[in-house]
Amino acid sequence: MSLSVQEISDLIDQFDRETKALRSEILEMCWHMRGAVSYDEGMLLNRNDREIIADMIKKHMDTTQKSGLPFF
Question: CA angle, corner 35, sides to 47 and 64, nearest 5?
Answer without folding.
Answer: 85
